[in-house]
């Protein structure tokens, strides 16, 4: 024991038990604190003392390395919490907590795991898998939402190592959540009334209480265009059979946006140049629209993207915990 290194701050002078890591580092601790944190430790300390070493303080050899044990103890003891920057460290700690039956402490890691997810250090599908196993609701929801950004999120290049530990129904929940988000996102694209009266980019179209369109001045280019030679058709405003005449190139943008949302139901996709350009190309043939179509459609796509993110944020994955 004299040759073993002792790691601060876990070198308490009033220690009555020590944990020794697999790489030979000692942590001088307290049975009462460890026992309160883990039923596994509590049961271990309840065993009779070694008759061959009466009165000797107990040293428990652990299979975990020193870094993992330090992370674990920083969760248990009133000291600064662990800082985890690598996924292997995180997984090792979660496995140790599971082995020690410390499920109540797992949520202490959730915020750090959220940070790893946002920085792409922890891939979303693996984050979801770990969150599902350890019943971290907030992380599972954040990972599911982040998966919306990837068109083939459920077809990864390699399977997360922990994936075998979750049921097939956990994957179906992701599929169902994605479908629900796509439905509300597509409905946002189709909402012509929002475009005409509630999108903040231009003056609202004036619609009478009887549903008649009275004034479109100051609205979007595809609404105010009066060129009779340019293709246009009505859209339903969903209010007392109200119809609004709009340029067909805006409808083409909507169709492209909905197609993009099928693979990525996230607001960001409706702002992509590949979604915008075909409609703007059509608008270029109109003398009234050509000079402002690109700028106005970009502005509109940004507002629409925010609206899509707002409505999809209200959709919750149906977790069983």
Question: What order do the helices and strands come in, and which of them pair?
Answer:
Blueprint: E1 5-11, E2 17-20, E3 25-29, H1 31-37, H2 39-45, E4 58-61, H3 66-76, H4 87-99, H5 110-118, H6 124-133, H7 137-147, H8 168-190, H9 192-198, E5 206-207, E6 213-215, H10 221-224, E7 232-236, E8 243-247, H11 248-263, H12 273-283, H13 293-313
Parallel strand pairs: 1-3, 2-4
Antiparallel strand pairs: 2-3, 5-6, 7-8
Helix pairs in contact: 1-2, 3-4, 5-7, 6-7, 8-11, 8-13, 11-12, 12-13
Protein name: BTB domain-containing protein
Pfam families: BTB
InterPro entries: BTB/POZ_dom, SKP1/BTB/POZ_sf
Explain how this protein is built.
The protein has 321 residues and is α/β, with parallel strands linked by helices. The protein has helices spanning 31-37, 39-45, 66-76, 87-99, 110-118, 124-133, 137-147, 168-190, 192-198, 221-224, 248-263, 273-283, 293-313; strands spanning 5-11, 17-20, 25-29, 58-61, 206-207, 213-215, 232-236, 243-247. The strands form three sheets. It has a four-stranded mixed beta sheet. A two-stranded antiparallel ribbon has the order 5-6. α3 (66-76) packs across α4. The chain is rod-shaped. It starts with a strand and ends in an 8-residue tail after the last helix.
